[in-house]
């Protein structure tokens, strides 16, 4: 039996971002979050293994907590969450265990 060929050959880190209306109701907020995803991932691109990644929002960034999509509080919250996520992905790819016990 022949091995399955790759759908496409990767020579670099590919990144996609998904932010559903369920978690961020306003389009301006969703777009601001996506910009943060691409910005933070550029910092980690050199440390991530070559692959295609999709970053999907799993928690709400509501307008009650973050009044403005351009607020520093929203940018900081998204940036911190992404840095933790990408640090875990980098550590996992290198076979390391983080302090909190998650690999």
Give a description of the structure.
- The termini are far apart.
- A two-stranded parallel ribbon has the order 1-2.
- The protein contains two helices and two strands; from the N terminus they run E-H-E-H.
- It has one domain.
- Helix 1 packs across helix 2.
- It is an alpha+beta fold and 103 residues long.
Q: Which regions are unreliable across 5 or more consecutive residues at pLDDT < 50?
A: none
SSE string, helices as H and strands as E: EHEH
Q: Provide a count of the helices.
A: 2
Secondary structure category = alpha+beta
Provide key terms for this protein.
single chain; 103 residues; alpha+beta; two-stranded parallel sheet; 10% strand
Summary, kept brief:
This protein has helices at residues 27-44, 72-93; strands at residues 14-18, 52-56. The protein is an alpha+beta fold and 103 residues long. The protein is elongated and about 50 Å long.
Record the SSE blueprint.
Blueprint: E1 14-18, H1 27-44, E2 52-56, H2 72-93
Parallel strand pairs: 1-2
């Amino acid at each position: 039996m022949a091995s399955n060929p790759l759908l496409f050959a990767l020579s670099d880190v590919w990144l996609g971002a998904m932010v559903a209306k369920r978690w961020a109701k306003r389009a301006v907020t969703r777009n601001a979050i996506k910009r943060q995803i691409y910005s933070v991932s550029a910092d980690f691109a050199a440390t991530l293994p070559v692959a295609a990644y999709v970053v999907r929002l799993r928690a709400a960034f509501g307008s009650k907590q973050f009044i403005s999509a351009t607020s520093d509080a929203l940018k900081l919250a998204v940036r911190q969450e992404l840095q933790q996520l990408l640090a875990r992905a980098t550590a996992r790819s290198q076979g390391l265990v983080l302090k909190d016990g998650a690999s």
